[in-house]
Amino acid sequence: MIEPPTFSTERLNIRLLEQRDIPAVIKYYEDNREFLEPFEPLRPKNFYTREFWSQKIDKGLIEFSYDHSLRLFLFKRSHPSQVIGSANFTQIVEGVSYSCCLGYSLAKSEQSNGYMTEALQTVIPHIFENINMHRINANYMPHNRRSGSVLKRLGFAIEGYARDYLMINGKWEDHILTSLVNSNWKA
Question: Is the pLDDT confidence value at 1 over 80?
Answer without folding.
Answer: no
